[in-house]
Design a protein that fits this description.
- InterPro entries: Apaf_helical, Disease_R_plants, LRR_dom_sf, LRR_R13L4/SHOC2-like, NB-ARC, P-loop_NTPase, WH-like_DNA-bd_sf, WHD_DRP.
- Pfam families: LRR_14, NB-ARC, WHD_DRP.
- It is a peripheral membrane protein.
- Its main location: membrane.
- This protein has 687 residues and is an alpha/beta fold.
- The protein folds into 5 domains: 112 residues, Rossmann fold; 85 residues, Helicase, Ruva Protein, domain 3 (Orthogonal Bundle); 72 residues, Arc Repressor Mutant, subunit A (Orthogonal Bundle); 281 residues, Alpha-Beta Horseshoe (Leucine-rich repeat, LRR (right-handed beta-alpha superhelix)), CATH 3.80.10; 110 residues.
- 31% of the residues lie in helices and 23% in strands.
- The chain contains 21 helices and 28 strands.
- Strand 8, helix 16 and strand 9 form a beta-alpha-beta unit.
Length: 687
Amino acid sequence: MGGQGKTTCARKLYNNDIIVSRFDVRAWCIVSEEYNRREILQEIFSQVTGYKDKGDEDDVLADMLKKKLMGKRYLIVLDDMWDCMAWDIDLRLSFLDDKKGSRILITTRLEKVDKQIKCHIDPYSLPFLTTEESCQLLQRKVFQQEGCPPELQDVSLVVAKKCKGLPLVVVLVDGIIKKGKMEESWWHEVKDALFGYLDHESDEYSRATMQLSFDNLSDCLKPCLLYIGMFPEDATIPVSKLISVWTEEGFVQNIESAEDYLMDLISSNVVMVSRRRYNGKVKHCQVHDVVLHFCLEKSREEKFMLAVKGPSNQFQPLDWEGSRVSFSFGEYISKFASLGFKTQKPFHQNLRSLITTNQGKSIDGIPFHQVSELRLLKVLDLSSHNVDRLSSVTFKPLNHLKYLAVWVNKYDFHPESHLPHIETLIVKNNFNTVLLPASIWEMKKLRHVEIAEAVFGKQGIFEESSKLENLRILRNVRFRIDEVDRVDVLLRRCPNLQQLHIGFWGNDDSAEPFCLTLENLTQLQILRLSFQWSHIVSGLQFPSNLKKLVLFRTDIKSVISFIAGLPSLEYLELKDRYLIENVSHFSQSEEWCIGDIMFHKLKFLKLVNLRISRWDASEESFPLLETLVIKVCYDLEEIPLSFADIPTLKQIKLIWCKNKSLKASAVRIKEEVEENEGNDRIDLITI
């Protein structure tokens, strides 16, 4: 049954210290009922190698994966498998057993899957919780460390018994209980409600409990939860995207309210946190498939939303009067969409949101050739399917459109302004330059612009025009290394930026040392600065509010003093790519000495692909550091032992670091803390 804890149990095993130390490589992949072979292979390949594949065909990718695993002791978890074909036809041949002690762990609801793919051991069926275990879990969830008051012991046992031994139901009931006051009368209300919903013997009590959870949500939260049904099963949903579509749909008034709504759904246990940012904020979320199925059923009942997962001979477009559609598989989209246009009044005209999911192969045109008919659309996300070419003219009739995301090889901006209400504009492409025209400055409501390889034409940046006062996020814009003056003009016209990703390209052989001034962006909190080639920085002026900084291919020694002076900096990432291209800003592996430089508020430090062999730093340089991540720094010999004296350090993560002495130094730091402080506060993770 869904909600018994299969994935939770597998995850506990996967992250166990003994398991981690035993295997050379590990990979975790969710298969799901509607799976895509290529996505699964890509996910496993990236976890095994540390790099994404370069777009090879499925069979080539499967063979590459097999070769990477050969000779290694590996652990692969295939979570939530529904079909034996996923194993027998699509995956099995990539996992040859070369007697190294490798293991494959599969979780599934279906007994037939257990029987057909069983190799060495009998399947393990999770037992249901006893009433006492359910009660202990419920009390621990509700009261945390405080313990259950004596007056609530009896009623909590009655409530727990009604959960029928399913951990998911216990967790959902916890979310309901915490909505009210911790008084005996409220527990009795929940108990009576549970008896009302669960008064029949069936396998539907997970859904029935979800109905009770849904009924206890405030009216403003209900459409936000149902909208999550637009995303595929087991999807890891970027919170930034979820919040954007909620806002563009009008479910919430602003970003701040949307964040509060999300936290309310998380506290109700209907939405789960899958990944947090360095500062504790939620980066990705997801829902249990029991919750997702409830959202899909409820949405269809209320004509809120429809998820189309494949061809359906029974469904007719005119039967659907709702406002939102999500399509899961690209090969059916064009065929399905054309059905509506055989009638005089196609259902598409009612749509407010249209989202495609699951990566599809390249197609000749956009999935809906009649997209201009969707006049009421507010949200259009076609970013899961690669299109060869698109023009902004295609979307000109969509005057209500607020959110547009596409994946296109070549995107052409029309010189005239379109989409007057657009707030979020995302264009993914395959490394082809997108020229931004002057008309983009007429899109006054733009809040989030993310266009891969975007460059401004001279007219597009220097012509006199009003500012984009609402623009908060600008990502992936590029300039030539000798166009720094144009950057200054651009940023003056985007005065309220909070996030900026900006890159510079061009050979720096004859270029002067680089100087960049950003101090006028007083609201800027996140900055990613990258160069095509390593560059010597002669001057950087950052805003004092900057909290997160990512520097890619900059000379560390020339920038470190500028960085250390930032009073609010909490996150610092220094990156290079010498491993891939055999070049680095260090001509040879050398020492990185920080000296007496201090990062006063830095909590998170990440070093990626840096060619340094020795690192000299004292605990005084990082007085508040909590997390240190070192990735693919093959030459680095050790972490300074002084890091054991940083009282705030909680985690050291080593990713694809082959040097045994580096790991040994991390172990020494952990052991010294345990010996000196008598606690195990440092979590050491090696991948």
